[in-house]
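=== RUN LOG ===
request id: a7f3
mode: sequence -> structure
chains: 1
length: 192
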Amino acid sequence: DEQLRTALQAARRQGAKGLILDVRGNPGGLKMQAVKVTSEFLKPGEVVFIQKDAQGQMTPVPAEKDGVAQDIPLCVLIDEGTASSAEILAGALQDYQRGKLIGTRTFGTGTVLGEFQLSDGSAVLLAVDQWLTPKEREIWHKGITPDIKAELPQGTFMLLPESGTKLSAEALANSKDTQLLKAMEVLKKELR
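=== RESULT ===
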């Protein structure tokens, strides 16, 4: 989406050497938003996801061109609240080894629902298509497994950006967000 693109362009201008993309607790959105966001990190023509219909017909959905963060080292934070189009993003980045996924297994959404009207005016939603990762891994009921498993300690909440306030390095280091701290550790090693 345009806000992400603007933020990525600003990060590049400021000389960002690496990024942590946090999609924990992200229930997803429209699949075309997943294509736009994922396209910022993939090369043109690489597959974002594959849509498989009930007859087994598979349609690859390619990345759009002109992504602004195709070569910046990346870690992606995921958890059981990561679902739908956020899983499309995570699965594609993992399949292309574009960045390490850190956290816990995602929710496991991965279907397109079709609405079928009934004679009494009600409707039924049934899965009519399924989303697969570029390497044809199923997301539905399986989720995306992280490359590096990291759980938040019980009773701990993920660190969220404060509006307009920057965290000091000391406050960040003392946070209990083990997933974010792990991503920082992995990214630092990668940048050496």
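=== NOTES ===
The mean pLDDT is 92.
DSSP finds five helices and eight strands in the chain.
=== END ===
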